[in-house]
Amino acid sequence: MTVSHSHLREAIDVLKKTGVRITPQRHAILEFLINADTHPTADEIYRALEGNFPNMSVATVYNNLRVFREAGLIKELPYGDSSSRFDFSTSEHYHAICNECGKIVDFHYPGLDEVEHFAASVTGYEVNKHRLEVYGTCPECQSKKI
What we know:
Zn(2+) binds at residues 98, 101, 138, 141. Its cofactor is Zn(2+); Mn(2+); Fe(2+). The chain has helices at residues 5-17, 24-35, 42-49, 58-70, 113-123, 139-145, and strands spanning 74-77, 85-88, 94-98, 104-107, 133-136. It is of the alpha+beta class. The protein has 2 domains: 5-88, Arc Repressor Mutant, subunit A; 94-145, Dna Ligase, domain 1. It has a 3-stranded mixed β-sheet with strand order 4-3-5, with no helix packed on it. The chain has a two-stranded antiparallel ribbon with strand order 1-2. The longest helix is centred in the N-terminal third of the chain and has 13 residues, at 5-17.
């Protein structure tokens, strides 16, 4: 998967507008998140980048993830296992989560936007977001059971 340069540029613009300095480490963490389709944990991000940044600590990764989250660039997904996974927020999408290994895969289903309108009309709530998760066993874990 190649870097989506437009996503990276937009993310950097957002950070600059909020007064966040773009350090090489921040750039690398953002780029990794944009390219990752696995919703990595902070530890996975650290392990992937520590070779390029020998003086970077896990705490640095956590601090930067917090900065990105506060800027609205990423979502923290506190699923199943105790370590949060991080997702670069580009568009509304849903998650399929493996009960065995915890892997999270994105999927899009545009029809579900109607859920918000329906929920609003039934409850009287002013609905501003929704979240959907489906749980099951991923193909890799299925093949291990055979």
